[in-house]
Amino acid sequence: MGTYILTMLLVGLFAGLLGSLLGLGGGIVITPVLTLAFGVDIKYAVGASIIAVLATSSGSALAYLKDDMLNLRIAMFLEIFTTLGAFVGAMLSVVTNAQILFLLYGALMLFQAFNMYQKIRSKAETDINHKADPWAQKLKLAASYYDKGLGQKVDYQVDRVAAGSTVMFFAGVVSALLGIGAGAFKVLALDTVMKMPLKASSATSNFMMGVTATASAIFYLFIGQINPVLVTPIALGVLAGSLLGSRLMPHLPVKLLRWIFLLVLLVTGLQMFMRGMR
């Protein structure tokens, strides 16, 4: 029993570290590790991942808010759409086949890996000096933060608010279906669609996932898909890992974060897609 608890703590620690660094919430690690390495039923793995997402968000959000990397105004506006999507996804999860969940998970991760590779290949960061979207101007979504890695202040505008909101709705659906927090979708919406800097996108995504996951966690608790013995050590490890990740992320180069992001997406996507094909 002691070995089991220690193993789950370490899994949670690694998941929380990666989740807070990349804005992925930790569920992107928890779900494949529990199902592929430990043979846990995907329904219970999803429940554990939802709790891990809550722990990651709790552990990192305060640090990112203190560093001004978290754009709270954008997060609260877009949460309207992700929360609606989470309720839809939670209802769909009851009637969705497990094999379809594996295939969907893998396909989404590989798609986002391709998008991230395109970003790295372009050798240029998101254009933060573009003209702001009219809705972004009305809602005052522009912000700034101090990049400790670059040693300078970064001011940025926000573009394509309507398109980003649509992606966020589907991110909520995917979050509830797969228990991953849909951080890959959220970072895609913020970094690629709405043209926010990657670090601000990751920090904002981490906060948003906690709010989205709350709606899903309540549903999974009522239908009995959250196992306390499985969830407790994982959540503690995730909390510690997310605190560590939130301290490291402001100092890391953006290009390094993108390469880590790409590697995690490729490995996870291929594993889960192959499992679904079997």
Automatic annotation (TrEMBL):
It is a multi-pass membrane protein. It is found in: Cell membrane. InterPro entries: TM_pro_TauE-like, TSUP. Pfam families: TauE (PF01925). It comes from the Bacteria. Keywords: Cell membrane, Membrane, Transmembrane, Transmembrane helix, Transport. The chain crosses the membrane at residues 7-38, 44-65, 72-92, 98-117, 161-185, 205-223, 230-250, 256-274. Belongs to the 4-toluene sulfonate uptake permease (TSUP) (TC 2.A.102) family. This is Probable membrane transporter protein. It comes from Streptococcus oricebi.
